[in-house]
Amino acid sequence: MIAGISIYEILTVTSILFFIGIYGFITRKNLISVLISIELILNASVVNFVVINKYLYPDMLQGVIFAIFIIAVAAAETALAVSIIINLYRQISSVEVKDTEIMKY
Amino acid sequence: MNFSSFLLMRQEMILLTIILLLLVAEISLPKAKKQSIVHLAIFLFGINTIVGFFAIETSSWFGGMFHTNGLIHFFKNVLNVGVFILLLQSADWLQEKIVDNNKGTEFFILLFSSLLGMYFMISAGDFLMFYLGLELSTLPVAALAAFEVTKRISSEAGIKFILSAALASGVSLFGISMLYATSGSIYFDDIITMIASTNLTLLGFILFFAGLAFKISLVPFHFWTADVYEGAPISVASYLSVISKGAAVFILMILLFTVFKNLMHVWENIIYVVALATMFIGNLFALRQQNMKRFLAFSSIAQAGFILLGLMTGNQLGTATIIYFVMIYVFSNLAAFGVVQAISLKTGKENMNDYEGLYRTNPNLSLVMMLALFSLAGIPPVAGFFGKFFLFTAAASKGYYLLVFLAVVNVTISLYYYLLVVRAMFLRTSDQAIPYFKNKLYMKLGLLVTVIGILVLGLYSPLYDYIFELSKHLN
Questions:
Q1: Which of B101, B127, B154, B218 is the 20 to 30 Å CA partner of B186?
Q2: What is the ipTM, given to two decimal places?
Q3: pLDDT tens digit string along B188-246?
Q4: Torsion sign (Cα): B72, B109, B65, B189
């Protein structure tokens, strides 16, 4: 618990973070930036879990444990995505979203 | 926890052992004998499939995180059989293209890890286990989609899949965190008692549903499907459309029918709209496809729409019909993808025009393809008709007559484009028809099993009664 800050402020921040992530995913032109936007979404959920656990249900640690697992899985996900992006970069020398469009409709 | 209770997780144990054995084999086999890794993997997975047919009792482990019962076990068997057929069909491709580049073992390890994730996902008793299973089943498939590293199209499929999958799981997690906020627990059993239709719960449910709908490729979340299927290797596309989708449908059904049962008045409206959109958009977009993989991608989106009809009921009849339909869908779609794979492997041709005159040169393959497409369309003597018929009956029994009527309209549309392929194969002639070729043993076996499945499943009625009996575990 943080003195003087209620759960509403923190949940507002995580919701804003979440929607920044969604906005970034839709508008960014660079694959790496898209990946960073996804990290924002995942981190919003991580903070959500920890805060809800701490403020609302402090007698059990379910939310905190969940948060640790999300961090681990997010790292694996990023590693995999970056390796695929690198493989793509080897072939087309670009990490722009507009260059990954030989398949459409 | 003693040894006999440990055996209740035997499916997961065996699959994990197979993965480790393959790792050892990869290290110890000399380079000249690498081809035999395909035989080894198929043999080992065959053992796993056979062991799966022994019955398992209802139990729950790790404080309720992992549980199993007859229905879940039955569905794991369906997934096993599907993956086994898939392995048989992709053996030739692996031996000719992949093992020579020293990547054969990776394919099996990634594929089996993904299947292991699905086991854990459908056995999950809380959201943590569910999330880990979902990720374990999704991430290896992204690596598999980008498996042909020298092809640009394959990398593109991989990046599209991993980015959309990560977005979907992130959105889904945000929803889970809201469900956790309202119910104070991530265990399904606790959530069932606590859930109520407050605004926060509904928002959490909708975000969570979006994540799963991505896996099933329901309509607002379907944009990745066609691109990934076209770019990925055909075995991987087939895996995504059959096994991955089947497992996701199953866990969605479990969650809707148990955890979110109290929210039924909300989710039945969501499913109603999504089902209609999925059927219409899937079918209408399938009409204009020329590439067979994209064609099958949109057809599988449309089939997912039909599956949702069974979800509308929320009772034992719905459960039984969904599982029955998914089972038939596994066989029919694997048969279709198997033929596409056989032709693509020998000739590299994947377009519908290339299939013209196929019956004159390769009558057996065209017959298999025709059966598969008839089954997907739902033409009476084959299994697909019974699957669709039961689904429509289940939805009609709850009074959704308009929905069933629109679904039947969709069956008619789908019949048109399935018959386009049949017409190309049987009625058209072409100068550049695909020449006659012989398939190897594994591919023949794989296609034979699917044909038997398509022909027998629909006519062997005790099977449906058995599934209906098992479905009481859920309701």
A1: B218
A2: 0.95
A3: 988 988 888 889 999 999 999 998 999 999 988 888 999 999 999 999 999 999 999 99
A4: negative
**B315: closest CA of chain A, how far (Å):** 31
Say which amino acid occupies B424: A
Nearest neighbour of A65 by CB, restricted to B128, B143, B230? B128
Range(s) of the domain holding residue A20:
7-96
Backbone angles phi, psi at B349, to 5 degrees: -95, 135
Closest chain A CA to residue B148: A87
B458 neighbors B385 (Cβ within 8 angstroms): yes
Distance separating alpha carbons of residues A52 and A55, to the nearest angstrom: 5
**Best of B137, B147, B173 to mutate (most A CBs within 10 Å, chain A):** B173
Domain harbouring A17, CATH code: 1.10.287.3510
State how far the Cα of B71 lies from the Cα of A97, in Å rounded to an integer: 43
State the residue range of the domain holding B342: 3-473
- Of A84, A81, A95, the C-alpha closest to B170 is A81
Q: Looking at the domain assignment, is residue A2 inside a domain? A: no
Among the partner-chain residues A38, A57, A70, the one whose CB lies closest to the CB of B167 is A38
The string of pLDDT tens digits covering residues B271-319 is 999 999 999 999 999 988 889 999 999 999 999 999 999 888 888 898 9
Total domain count, chain B = 1
Domain count across chain A: 1
Rounded to whole angstroms, the Cα distance separating B221 from B245 reads 13
